[in-house]
Write a structure and sequence with these properties.
Blueprint (H helix, E strand, L loop, with lengths): L29 H12 L3 H8 L4 E5 L5 E4 L1 H7 L12 H4 L22 H9 L5 E8 L5 E13 L2 E10 L1 H30 L8 H29 L8 E4 H13 L8 E4 L7 E4 L1 H18 L5 E9 L2 E8 L5 H4 L17 H12 L3 E7 L3 E9 L4 H7 L1
Helix pairs in contact: 6-7, 8-9, 9-11
Length: about 400
């Protein structure tokens, strides 16, 4: 439990309240927690049997949001055999949320906690209301948990408690996101295609060629959107088989740039090559690499305002080739913390899995790695690194 050093006491000997930017930081003392734990440990056996058959994580929290009881599912998830190790902790502290260690107050007390569905649901239950929310917890390991949480108020032995239950919905959110993205992107492109097709009967003969060219571009984009979803699904199911060959970096950069200069998302924005781009041979799968670079460009374009420029570059150092894409916008800190996560989108709920796709395709299939930097005065730059020769034997065979 929390301990208070003499230096934290006020002059009159009282203990000042811990600072918080959202929920109360105060906790019950160790002896109070022990009494509350004993209440639930001494409950009739049928209660334990019922709780034990619940397939999701379940805890009982006191009015300070501290755990006083947990079911076996949670203990198994944490890999521990005793409730004593988590008694008195809060949910974010148990699940290793990065924000739970940012302040002395712990889980629920930072500015980020204001948007946390788990804290919101618990606070609602303390007002006597059942509540269900979705919640994303970023762990200190960098992994993300997509959860659905239920908080139900109960009164037991004249005390107010919250039954707090948690279910992992990562796969459900992933499926819903893919469906929304697919339909959104396909309908957008198909709508543009239909609009220009209808123009053919209305434009003057000298403009027919330009409209036909636009229809061709949109047709290619439509096919590309379908292939992108199929490729990502295959990659996640480990069914994607890279076909590596020697390519020129400047050629692939130019090809991808040409594609996105005519993309719907580039309207009103500038897409350009860095003048210092290098041209070297790279042994890789060109189809997968185009997808990664394309995702970087598309993500940058969607983050940019009309009139702004997105720049694609490539350089080479110590046997590694780096492709990078820059845009002038700075990402908020809470977004930076979730980049590359499986069901997170920089464009809002249900939109786009480009950053996750960059990481998956690069690291699992191209022997590469991805990173980013975003700060005031610089903007945002996404980077993808690949070994110039990933497999010498394969290169020899290809030659």
């Amino acid at each position: 439990m929390n301990t208070v050093s003499p230096s934290t006491r006020a002059i009159d000997g009282s203990i000042p309240p811990l600072p918080t930017e959202f929920a109360s930081a105060e906790r019950d003392a160790a002896d109070q927690i022990h009494e509350q734990v004993t209440l639930f440990m001494d409950a009739p056996p049928i209660v334990g049997d019922l709780v034990g058959n619940i397939p999701d994580i379940l805890t009982v929290l006191n009015d300070k949001r501290q755990v006083v009881y947990a079911n076996q599912v949670l203990l198994n998830y944490l890999g521990i055999d005793s409730q004593e190790r988590i008694q008195g902790l809060r949910p974010g502290e148990i699940l290793d949320c990065i924000h739970a260690v940012e302040s002395d107050g712990g889980c629920g007390t930072t500015e980020f906690c204001k948007t946390c569905g788990a804290v919101q649901a618990i606070l609602a239950s303390q007002q006597g209301k059942k509540n269900t929310k979705e919640c994303r917890i970023i762990q200190r390991s960098g992994e993300a948990l997509d959860l659905r949480v239920w908080a139900t108020p109960i009164t037991y032995a004249n005390g107010a408690f919250t039954v707090f239950s948690v279910a992992d919905i990562s796969h459900e959110k992933r499926r819903r996101a893919l469906e929304r993205i697919f339909f959104h992107d396909i309908l957008n492109t198909a709508g543009g295609l239909q609009g220009f097709a209808e123009l053919l009967d209305k434009v003057s003969p000298e403009d027919v060629g330009e409209v036909q060219h636009t229809i061709s571009d949109l047709s290619h984009q439509l096919i590309d959107e379908i292939l992108a979803q199929r490729q990502l699904s295959a990659a996640e199911n480990e069914e994607l088989v890279p076909e590596k060959k020697l390519i020129q970096t400047s050629t692939i950069a130019t090809d991808v740039l040409r594609t996105y200069r005519n993309h719907l998302v580039a309207e009103g924005r500038h897409v350009q090559l860095d003048p210092g781009i290098v041209d070297v041979e790279l042994h890789t799968d060109p189809v997968i690499l185009r997808r990664v670079i394309g995702n970087m460009i598309k993500n940058a374009l969607e983050a940019s305002k009309p009139g702004q420029a997105v720049t694609l570059g490539c350089d080479h150092q110590d046997g590694w080739v780096r492709f990078w894409v820059h845009n002038p916008k700075v990402m908020p800190r809470h977004i930076q913390l979730q980049i590359f996560q499986r069901s997170f989108s920089t464009k809002g709920t249900g939109r786009g899995l480009g950053t996750y796709s960059m990481k998956l395709l690069s690291e699992r299939y191209l022997d590469g790695r991805v990173s980013f930097a975003s700060e005031e005065g610089m903007g945002t730059i996404f980077m993808a690194y690949y070994p110039q020769v990933a497999d010498v034997a394969d290169v020899a065979d290809a030659a």
